[in-house]
Structures are given as structure tokens and as C-alpha cells.
Amino acid sequence: MSDKPTIVLVHGFWGGAAHWSKVIVELSSKGYTKLRAVEMPLTSLAEDAERTRKMVAQQPGPVLLVGHSYGGAVITEAGDMNNVVGLVYIAAFAPDAGESPASISQAHPPAAIANLAPDSDGYLWARYDKFHESFCQDLTADESLVMAVTQKAPLASTFGDNVTAPAWKNKPCWYQISSEDRMIHPENQKMMSARMNPRKVLTLAASHASLASRAAEVSALIDEAARELSKH
């Protein structure tokens, strides 16, 4: 697999790098040994993109960036690096220049928007008692419980940070739509994926947490992207 790119996985809001646990195992079983998952502070798009750039810069050879949810905005902002050869979006934001996840969400607010609440420190939380139905309704109650209790809240202001130069305009892209998503409206996912002219769009009847509930299909899409890129 030495000709394959290093796969760098970028998490979103309300979770950390471990949200990729099932995808990591799936990709490892396919022979991928160069796997990395960024742990971002979720304090601003600029800081999260910088943390991602630092990890990408540490990798020898080409890198395939994979972003879930808000992680899509991060790979859009950080994906202009020379060694980034492609971008995979998993139920993710893919803002254009001057757009933010917040501005995109205004067109079609997600079903679970009422279940998000800021605390007195400015962090935005998904309500613990509504986490299962909001974020991952196709996971088990136990899996949802762990996700809810370990959720990583972003600073609410991060949601409004604008992308400056979208990497999807210059890099090969792939996109997975979750048609049952309650955190990013499926219509917004369709809009974002269509305008990036992706190599492939995969639609799954999945929740926002497709990286966990449909890890095999998500990993297959990442594998397909990595194989296609390694031909060049």
C-alpha cells in the first residue's frame, strides 16, 4: 500500500477523533497502514484548520483528507496544501468562499436545531437527552449514550466562521449524503455536493453519524477515492 495516500480523518462538532473508530478499523482491514485522525480544539475555523495543516505537513507523501460534519469546512479551508491530493466529505459542510456552516444552515435548518443549546461559557452542546434522536438515531442506545456523554462541544462562534478559499474547487472530491440527517439538512448536502462536481456522490439512508452507523460503506468510498488517486 506504499503507493496509497495517507488518510487523514477530520472530525466534526460534538465529537472527537474517536468518532472515526469504526472507519479506522475498516480501513485497516483493507490494508491501510497510514491512517491519522486529527483532534481539533473546535475553537475557531482558523485554529482547527491550522491544527489539521500541521498534521498534514507531518505526513510524507500525498494525503487524502476526509471530513465529517463541520470537519468538511475544515478540510475545505486546509485542503489547499500541495501534498493534499483529494477530499472526501462525509455528511459534511463544504462552504464556498464567504460561507459558513451557519449561513448554509439558514437555507434549510436541520431537524434537530432546537436540540442545540449554548452554555454560559459560549460552548454549544447537543442536549444529552436528545442526542440519540438528533445525531445518531440509527445507532444503538448504548453507542448513543457514549457519544452523548463524551461529546466535544464547539465554541458556538465557530459555526459562523467563513471559509476563505475553498479547496474543493481545485482538488478531486467525493461526497457521502446522509438522507436521514437531522444535523445537516439533506437538501443542503445535495446542494453542496452538486456544486463541487464530485467524482462520486454516495447517498445512504443514514443519520448524521454515518461514519459510525454505516462505516463499511463510508470506508468503501474512502478506499475508492484513495485507489483512484493512487493511479495518478
Automatic annotation (TrEMBL):
Q: Key word RNA-binding present in the record?
A: no
Domain of life according to the entry = Bacteria
SUPFAM superfamilies in alphabetical order: alpha/beta-Hydrolases
Q: Which keywords belong to this entry?
A: Hydrolase
Entry's InterPro entries? AB_hydrolase_1, AB_hydrolase_fold, Sec-Metab_Biosynth_Hydrolase
Name a GO molecular-function annotation.
hydrolase activity
**Residue ranges of every copy of the AB hydrolase-1 domain listed in the record:** 7-220
Pfam families reported for this sequence: Abhydrolase_6
Asked if the Swiss-Prot or TrEMBL record annotates the protein with the keyword Hydrolase, the reply is yes
| Protein name, UniProt field | Alpha/beta hydrolase
> Which species is the source of this protein?
Comamonas avium
